[in-house]
Amino acid sequence: MECSTTDPVVAATPPGQDRVGSPESRGIDCVPDAERHGRARELFALWAAPNVSYLSFVVGGTLVLMGLTPAEALAVTVAGNLFWLLTGFIAVSGPAAGTSGSVISRAMYGVVGNRVIVAVTGWLIASLYLALNWSAASVAGLGLTSRLGLPDSPGLDAVVVCLIAGATILVAIFGHATIVRLYGALSILLTVVFVALSLLVLAHTDWSYAPADPPTGFGHLVVLASGFTIVASAPLSYANSPDLSRYLPRTTGRRAVTLWTAAGGFLPSVLFTAIGTLAATTLDMNDPQTALESIMPSWFVPVFVTAVVLNTVANNGITAYSSGLSMQSIGVRLHRVVAVLVVGVIGTAMTLFALLVFDFLTAVNTMMELVVVITGPCMAVYATDIVLRRNRYDGEQLHDQSRTSPFWYRAGVNWAGVLATLGGGVAATLCASSTSWAGPLSSAMDGLNLAVPVGVVGAAALYWALSRALGTLPPTTAQH
């Protein structure tokens, strides 16, 4: 299967190449059946390496700082991470269409409408996550340079950020085949290091811990909802899962794609968030790096910092990879490698600003509590479209951006998808609450944060109803 050359970006793209150790030349163009390879189980390592994460320790500690008991924090952690099933479900569209998620979403938003949605979710949100993760790694790296006696300065901050960002962008440039091979090794290495740290935490855990001033009554529910939102924001941010499954053979089982993807994110996220929770029973997780390093032998500190940096490279590597594809999908005529470099420069600039201006822990909590008002509805619309179309996507049709395209709809916009996403986003915003924002409905409920359930369920229901009412699901997708 070849893609239509009515897509100018695809027409200007050289023949695809996906080999380990060589920069991937394929951008958003379809992967022909003859070049499909791999098995669904490789998706486990692809998602485990980014999620054997220092940020999980940070989030786990935050849940206790909010006043939850370890048992409550664990329950919230498991519940929020169940959204990895949604991330896995969306990934099934990759093998079906053989192209990136940012192209498949033309079915939901129309050729023109999709450009706006992807510009926000594929550029802005992705750049924010790049900055967040690079900030985390840079904080750890700067702590190590301080131990080595190097003087603290803005110049040193910039050097550390640029080195970490450079390594990340290099991974994204080499692309899919290299990521598959590299992340298998990284997932093992990072797990060994973080399990060793977990054993140190367990040795210092206060198993009888109880919050000094636990929330009560309705306030208790408010805290539980806020914690759930913070945890759920991670899996809801990965709408790029089809990008990493598109090279799989078309006949790959949907259940296998869903479960291997979900397991790769769910298992390490739950494990290490729980360890962060236990760490907070005796350590001051207001400064998580200093707290964790205080229980490490001196020789283990550089090992830990290296693991944090490698995890960040793994996490941001797939984010930058997908962001480059997103840039192409909205019509920017750049080679995939150049597009990745542009995204990297934007993310690096945002990282330096965040690192030098904002408190890291506050930035983490605020972003994770508010970004779901966008990511939740987008994921819900995507998943609902897969159900409605029975995962029947034709890559050639999706790359047709002419006015005769089946995805042109009305003036290039599928109003069912756009209105459902906007409606879900508005409803989620009204119900959102964080340290810097409280929606009117949340304020009326004393700060109860219902952004995730309202945004996800609301957007899915709206898209289902509007698609039926507007007739935007004609039988134009290919039967595979």
Q: What is the name of the CATH superfamily?
A: Hydantoin permease
Query: What is the CATH T-level topology?
Result: Hydantoin permease
Distance between the termini: 12 Å
**What is the tally of beta strands?**
0
Order of helices and strands: HHHHHHHHHHHHHHHHHHHHHHH
Write up what this structure looks like.
With 480 residues, the protein is an all-alpha fold. The chain has a single domain, classed as Orthogonal Bundle (Hydantoin permease). Helices cover 68% and strands 0% of the residues. The chain has helices at 8-11, 42-51, 54-65, 70-81, 84-91, 93-97, 101-104, 106-109, 111-147, 154-174, 176-203, 217-232, 241-245, 254-279, 288-293, 300-329, 336-357, 360-370, 372-389, 395-398, 415-430, 440-444, 451-470. Helix 4 (70-81) runs antiparallel to helix 14, helix 5 (84-91) crosses helix 19 and helix 9 (111-147) packs antiparallel against helix 16. The termini are close together.
